[in-house]
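note to self — DONT lose this again. spent like an hour looking for the file last time. sequence + predicted structure for the chain T wanted, 148 res
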Amino acid sequence: MKVRKAKEQDHKTIVDFQLTMARETEGIELHQPTVEEGVYAVFSNPSKGCYYVAETDEQVVGSLLTTFEWSDWRNGTVLWIQSVYVRPEFRRKGIYRRMYSFLKQKVMDDQSLKGIRLYADKSNQAAHKTYETLGMNQDHYITFEWLK
């Protein structure tokens, strides 16, 4: 298995992953044209973020999106992991662990990158356990949001 930066040819797979994830995790049907445009926006404007994919036997089996948070306290960028998806038949096989390790090494090798953050639904205990196993901890912040 290898992890690599996603290419524009991965667009359809990533869109499919996002639609499936919304269905699985929140029971909602996303508007496919909006998701297609949103994924394409990342490929056409790297300042929005960067997709990474995991491949096994030349098949994309997982993906995630990183976005950027400027930290004046650290004078650098913190990567936010979002939109994580692993095909069901490949779950619990270390796919996310490899993607996370890939990103962690990227942060270690780049002085301008200061860390990694992500958020998980409060009820998603399986995700919490996975993140804790990788050495991540729940921080002392509470996330608030307002969404249109």
